[in-house]
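Intended use. Records like the one below are meant for learning the mapping from a protein sequence to its folded structure. Do not use them to infer anything beyond what is encoded.
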Amino acid sequence: MTRPTTLRGLLDAGADDSAAIVASDGSVLNHGELRAEVDRLAARLRSLGLGPADRIAIVVPNGPEMAIAFLAAACVGCAAPLNPKYRASELRFYLDDVCAKALITRPDETGSDARDAALTAEADVLDVALTGSVSGGSGPMDLLASSPDSEPATPARPTSDEVALVLHTSGTTSRPKIVPLRQRNLAQSAAGIAASLSLDANDRSLQVMPLFHIHGLLAGLLAPLSAGGAVACTEGFDAFRFFAQLEALRPSYYTAVPTMHQMVLSRSARHRDAARAAGLRFVRSSSASLPTPVLTDLEGLFGAPVIEAYGMTEATHQMCANPLPPAVAKPRSVGVPTGIELAVLDDRNRPRSPGERGEVSIKGATVIDGYENNPDANAAAFTDGWFRTGDEGYLDDDGYLFLTGRLKEQINRGGEKVSPLEVDEALLAHPSVAQAVTFAMPHPKLGEEVAAAVVAATGSRVDERELRRFVGQSLAAFKVPRRILVLDELPKGATGKLQRIGLADRLGLVPSAGA
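Structure written out for the chain above:
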């Protein structure tokens, strides 16, 4: 069977009468209704003259409406989903940066800043109400678009080479870069993820990741739909409602970032029976390295394998994944390449031998052709056909990839290189520590010093001196954090990922003359 090369082709995978979108209240859109809903909204977009070359921004909270808005926008032109928590000034920046021609948002307070940002361009406002049987939302959506000068012609349908989605990199150390993903990138990646997880029409994801992020869009939404399965579209991750959602929505898997998994574990003491009764086929983790203690505890909680995967926006999400049983999944590894070619290269672009560290580099059908309007970033990222990910790691003799950290996040303590991931694992081995993040702290003589922030396990108390002593039993002295802060919650980005770069400043850790 020929794989689809566009998103509209991908939507044809499911049987008309089988569930496709499930709302938090349990109401359902089947695949036939989903296609009709997407086509109806797509027709409204085309009636405004919007087509493959046009950017359609989306500012809608997680849920069925967001999923439908994304699918329709990407089937007409280029979807540009944005974080609904952005303020008006932030939204104006991103709308200008992607040259948005239209905006889909909500008419209520959740879309007020988006409307303000769009209306500065004197946009028209059109009502876009959902007509399907799903009732998870709280009302219609608005469509704001520039007024055409004359009656628009019906635009052509996007081809496989058209850009279907634009996202921004995190911009931790520089201006965010625009990542353009083509129709074929999305279709190929969704099918590849589905194949690596053996998804079929019986599978249902519990979609808790933000739908303005590549992880949620691909592994939570498009992958199960491409296999004819279903998506339980929640309002986003909520640790207090998570176990109730498992019981009510009956997913076969969920995919999340490590901090979300850790929050699930922190709430699990009274829900262990419910976790086992959920009958998950597997749990998936991606977007950051999953500490081994967290993986082990998750498998014990759900009685299901935990599949750690490795992805990034520039690769249309997944690059590697550990295989499902009975194949071997290796602890601390992010698995084997899936759908791309991968090599670990030295600074002269030569492949490293198994066990030798270097920069993880990729090429293949899901990798972007280049950043948008950014020749400097492209020159730095692409060499001899390889995209350099910025991650450090090594391959073992069996071809499994082990990540040792982001090259920019590596701590240089007076010439001694420290991997934050290694220190994270040592901290999490302590029974009183529920979450941990290690980062660089400025030092007047060494340049950088090792620091960490932790969250105590429920009912536990963390003593900094005792924790440093504990870590020193398994790590060399220069790797032991000089400072350990105990926090109620670790600072995270919009997608739930921990952000190490700049964390010392955010937490007020500044160098002192006596350090």
